[in-house]
């Protein structure tokens, strides 16, 4: 905790979010950004532990749904990327032509991840015959192996996941957890016998995302991404976005339906019960440390972090007060900490020889959900003082410590959910115009820091006009429609389709 008190004086107010966020991730000791490669922060123990707890939520969901953890190599040979790029290019061209990919021959320059990868060209002093690259994601290495593992319908479904670092040459402004070049990445890849199986998996992915976001106390906007924002090679992409306090949206989870498109590219087939060879159908599901960035941004305040109990490295700190006055205080505090630890609570006993105010200061910055004080008078009365990071304070009987603390942790989580929901409610508003005119509409009344709710059923050209006119990005079609038909913002056609527009990270 050295230096925390001094550092806290450098925390900008959260109202200045673009200054507050980068300051707080370092002041709270989550990362150190001084490593000499842009976008590659050094994870510090507190931040790494919080991220590890998020990973444990993902692993819980994977175990619950029958996924198994794998670990694929970091290096991928260039010829596998070429195979992916050809597929992506074919699908892009087919989409633009409005035809099935099987109907199209495409021999132009391939597109895909090639411009985003880090290349490895030498092994020691020897130039590699085939250049390698650091994985930006793992479709190519995984599917190369899947084609060796899957032979018959008895091998399906195959449900895999891994938690690894991925690398993308990000050219935009980097920001800890939000936009980085070395990504702490969760990815699940599944293989099914038919589209129905893949459809069901997408539904399961959506449920898992919401369960994880519930534990993180984060509401989200869920949408089917527009065609131009669909993951390369995907039939369609769905995403969950968190609304940050500055009104920008942060994509925190995506799940992609590949249909049989990747299977055809990687010869991923199986023999059905009748002996027929058929292509597999696939899905992917991805998340990253953006989840931690969303937690930091959504819940923190002018005093520091506020961590949801599910991912707080320290859920409760026990602080003996005036232990020099009564020698019984520190042993009693230690016993209380042990009792709480025994019931599964992550506890820190703070016996530092510093003023109580310094301790409060430090643990506020860290976002510890609950602080417990135990002094001579508390001990005499058989009580302790419990302060929640969200502000409430109460006296609790030592006899009821375990239940009271567990209840308080759940209460704090509920409070964070309500606060976050309220913030989103304030930031999401109906669009100020019933329609957009190509010439006449004055877009100056479009507010900064607002996510707009619109009716839209137009084509790509209509969407392009909409984005240029407003300066906002179309997130895609929401899972929930409007209850009644209303006029599309651009075409004027009646529709129930609801979409959101926002500035995105």
Summary tags:
single chain; 505 residues; alpha+beta; BirA Bifunctional Protein, domain 2; Rossmann fold; Translation Initiation Factor IF3; eleven-stranded mixed beta sheet; five-stranded mixed beta sheet; 13 helices; 25 strands; globular; disordered N terminus
Summarize the structure.
The protein has 505 residues and is an alpha+beta fold. Helices cover 34% and strands 25% of the residues.
The stretches of 5 or more residues where confidence is low (pLDDT under 50) are: 1-8, 104-110
SSE-based structural type = alpha+beta
How many helix segments?
Answer: 13
CATH fold-level name of the largest domain? BirA Bifunctional Protein, domain 2
Order of strands in the sheet with most strands: 3-7-8-14-11-10-9-22-25-21-20
Number of domains: 3
- Characterize the biggest β-sheet: 11 strands, mixed
Helix percent reads: 25-40%
Number of strands: 25
Task: Report the CATH superfamily of the largest domain.
Answer: Bira Bifunctional Protein, Domain 2
Distance between the termini: 31 Å
Note the overall shape. globular
Please tell me the overall pLDDT. Answer: 92
């Amino acid at each position: 905790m050295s230096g925390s008190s001094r550092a806290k004086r450098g925390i900008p107010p959260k109202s200045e979010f673009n200054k507050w966020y980068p300051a707080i991730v370092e002041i709270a000791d989550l990362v150190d950004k001084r490593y000499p490669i842009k976008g590659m922060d050094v994870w510090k123990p507190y931040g790494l532990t919080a991220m590890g707890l998020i990973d444990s939520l993902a692993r819980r969901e994977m175990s619950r749904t029958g996924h198994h953890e794998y670990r694929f190599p970091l290096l991928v040979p260039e010829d596998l990327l070429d195979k992916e790029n050809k597929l992506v290019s074919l699908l892009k061209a087919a989409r633009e032509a409005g035809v099935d990919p099987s109907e199209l021959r495409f021999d132009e320059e391939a597109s895909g991840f090639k411009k985003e990868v880090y290349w490895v060209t030498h092994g020691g002093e020897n130039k590699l015959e085939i250049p390698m690259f650091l994985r930006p994601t793992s479709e190519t290495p995984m599917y190369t192996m899947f084609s060796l593992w899957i032979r018959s319908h008895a091998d399906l479904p195959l449900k895999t996941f891994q938690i690894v670092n991925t690398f993308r040459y990000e050219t935009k402004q980097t920001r800890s957890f939000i936009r980085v070049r070395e990504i702490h990445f969760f990815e699940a890849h599944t293989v099914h016998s038919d589209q129905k199986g893949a459809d069901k998996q997408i539904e399961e992915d959506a449920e898992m995302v919401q369960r994880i976001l519930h534990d993180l106390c984060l509401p989200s906007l869920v949408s089917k991404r527009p065609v131009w924002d669909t993951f390369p090679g995907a039939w369609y992409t769905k995403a969950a976005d968190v609304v940050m306090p500055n009104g920008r949206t942060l994509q925190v989870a995506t799940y992609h339906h590949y249909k049989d498109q990747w299977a055809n590219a990687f010869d991923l087939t199986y023999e059905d019960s009748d002996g027929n060879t058929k292509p597999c159908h696939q899905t992917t599901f991805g998340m990253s440390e953006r989840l931690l960035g969303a937690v930091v941004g959504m819940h923190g305040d002018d005093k520091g972090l506020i961590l949801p109990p599910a991912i707080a490295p320290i859920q409760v700190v026990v602080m003996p007060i005036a232990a020099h006055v009564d020698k019984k205080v520190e042993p009693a505090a230690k016993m209380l900490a042990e009792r709480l630890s025994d019931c599964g609570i992550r506890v820190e006993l703070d016996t530092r020889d510093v003023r109580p105010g310094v301790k409060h200061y430090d643990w506020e910055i860290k976002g510890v959900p609950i602080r417990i004080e135990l002094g001579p008078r508390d001990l005499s009365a058989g009580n302790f003082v419990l302060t929640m990071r969200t502000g409430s304070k109460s006296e609790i009987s030592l006899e009821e410590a375990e239940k009271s603390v567990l209840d308080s942790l759940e209460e704090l989580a509920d409070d964070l959910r309500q606060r976050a929901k309220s913030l989103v409610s304030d930031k999401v508003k109906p669009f100020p115009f019933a329609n957009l005119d190509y010439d006449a509409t004055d877009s100056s009344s479009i507010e900064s820091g607002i996510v707009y709710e619109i009716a839209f059923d137009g084509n790509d050209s209509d969407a392009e006009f909409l984005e240029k006119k407003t300066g906002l990005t179309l997130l895609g079609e929401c899972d929930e429609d409007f209850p009644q038909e209303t006029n599309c913002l651009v075409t004027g056609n009646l529709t129930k389709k609801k979409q959101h527009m926002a500035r995105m990270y």
